[in-house]
Design goal:
Blueprint: H1 16-22, H2 25-28, H3 32-48, H4 54-72, H5 85-97, H6 110-146, E1 151-156, E2 159-165, H7 166-191, E3 193-194, H8 210-216, E4 221-222, H9 226-231, H10 234-260, E5 268-269, H11 288-311, H12 326-349, E6 351-352, H13 354-361, H14 368-379, H15 383-399, H16 409-415, H17 423-426, H18 429-435, H19 444-460
Parallel strand pairs: 3-4
Antiparallel strand pairs: 1-2, 5-6
Helix pairs in contact: 3-4, 3-6, 3-8, 4-5, 6-7, 6-12, 6-19, 7-10, 7-19, 10-11, 10-12, 11-12, 14-15
The structure holds arginine.
Length: about 475
């Protein structure tokens, strides 16, 4: 049997392999809700413009509603022979209401139809991801407020650098996620043009009203160029690019959770709810969720790359290559949503060992920069000289196997005789973080203020759109 929807000029049916490579229904059935929504907007417009009669449009809309009900109930039978979601719906409509079903496809093509459906889908996903990002921001901001004064070592090159507060570290991620939300919001803004009515590629000779359908579907306006409209997948690419960057951010925090919960660091502990055991080593508590969040970055960034390669070099307008746009988007956005939920759960769950953090911040000469700053402020030395002298004091501490602050005053004076007793205040990690009050610095006061500002903002307007 030839395809009932387009088989007019075909004598024989497609080969098994042809059907297998051609059919997208196994994955694009996910677009069912949006496909019906777009068809309903289209048929209402066809009636309003007199292209079909009100009676015909009523029958079509009723049939579409029935199909929607069947799908919601999980009773709809998807058929591979009908290729994709669009033809599955149209064919069922024909079964339900007869030949008038054929009028639905007046003045449109699957090319503008799929572009519209997919945009609607991506738009919903962006909204869901935005609330996932906001939820994670809120969890982090709350953690930051709880730990505004919790001292930990800050690292550069993963080497102890200077004492920071754990709250400040959490707020660093809140900022990253804010930029992620900005990127998604930006993608949503550019996505807001409706392709419906571009038809196959050239527009249509029917007197359609594209503003009406654009409005009905919640778009800002119709697309301006029919060729561009059916061949554009920038909205999916931009969303995947934003998703890749967001996933990269999550992977960095995930990696830190892996490090902090290791016995070597011992900075934090995940509850049983977010840990797994080993089948052989009874003592193990593995941070699998964090590892998987870290790993999912690969498939998300891979999806971006995959779609970019699908689109590269495609001549205008639509080509079937573009059917390969959906799976990477579905997979990547699912992975991101799950990663966000897991991360939000872990952040709330994370028990901080403030003593262990403080201990680590008291080792490895974490306050060496504070000593150099003291020499600058108290003795008026140029920073470069202060840095050099501090280096020699650090070397002395190393030779005694002690931290900087454990040196006696005479020992310090053996390097720089002008140093006085009050230097020890500068060497205390708690005092160190308190002193870093510069705008954007790690001081507990700063962290408390920023965390509160974020919490207020997030509780008031959780969605950026
Ligand atoms: N299933 C197709 C896709 O996802 C729909 C568009 C088909 N258009 C066509 N001219 N064959 O791209």
């Amino acid at each position: 049997m030839t395809n009932t929807m387009w088989g007019g000029r075909f004598a024989a049916s497609p080969s098994q392999i042809m059907e297998e490579i051609n059919a997208s229904i196994d994955f694009d059935k996910r677009l069912w809700r949006h496909d019906i929504e777009a068809s309903k907007a289209h048929v209402a417009m066809l009636a309003a413009t007199g292209i079909v009669s009100a009676k015909e449009a009523g029958e079509i809309a009723k049939g579409l509603d029935q199909i929607l009900g069947e799908m919601e109930a999980g009773q709809f039978k998807f058929t591979r022979a009908l290729e994709d979601i669009h033809l599955n719906v149209e064919s069922r409509l024909h079964e339900l209401i007869g030949p008038v079903a054929g009028k639905l496809h007046t003045a449109r093509s699957r090319n503008d139809q799929v572009a519209t459906d997919f945009k609607l889908y991506v738009r919903d996903e962006i909204a869901a991801i935005d609330s996932g990002l906001a939820a994670l921001q809120l969890a982090l901001a709350q953690k930051a407020l709880d730990h505004a004064a919790t001292v930990m070592p800050g690292f550069t090159h993963l080497q102890t650098a200077q004492p920071i507060t754990f709250g400040h570290h959490c707020l660093a991620y809140v900022e990253m996620l804010a930029r992620d939300r900005g990127r998604f919001a930006d993608a949503a803004k550019r996505l807001a043009e409706c392709p419906l009515g571009s038809a196959a590629l050239a527009g249509t000779s029917f007197p359609i009203d594209r503003i009406m359908t654009a409005k009905a579907l919640g778009f800002a306006r119709p697309t301006a160029n029919s060729l561009d409209a059916v061949s554009d997948r920038d909205f999916a690419l931009e969303t995947l690019a934003a998703a890749s960057i967001a996933a990269m951010h999550l992977s960095r925090f995930a990696e830190e959770i892996v490090l902090w919960t290791s016995p070597q660091f011992g900075f934090a502990r995940l509850s049983d709810a977010y840990s797994t055991g080993s089948s052989i080593m009874p003592q193990k508590r593995n941070p699998d969720a964090a590892e998987l969040v870290r790993a999912k970055t690969g498939r998300i960034a891979g999806a971006f790359q995959a779609l970019l390669m699908v689109m590269k070099g495609l001549p205008l307008a639509y080509a079937k290559d573009m059917q390969e746009d959906k799976e990477p988007v579905f997979d990547a956005l699912d992975a991101l949503k799950l990663g966000l939920a897991a991360m939000t759960g872990m952040v709330g769950d994370l028990e901080i060992d403030a003593k262990a953090m403080k201990r680590a911040a008291s080792r490895a000469h974490a306050t060496a920069t504070d000593l150099a700053d003291w020499l600058v402020k108290t003795l008026g030395l140029p920073f470069r000289d202060a840095h050099h002298i501090t280096g020699r004091i650090v070397a002395l501490a190393d030779s005694k196997g002690a931290d900087l602050k454990k040196l006696t005053l005479p020992e310090i004076k053996s390097v720089e005789p002008r140093v006085t007793e009050d230097v020890y205040a500068a060497l205390d990690p708690g005092r160190s973080v308190k002193s870093r009050k510069s705008q954007g610095g790690t001081a507990p006061g700063n962290v408390r203020r920023e965390a509160k500002r974020w919490i207020k903002r997030l509780e008031k307007a959780p969605l950026s759109r």
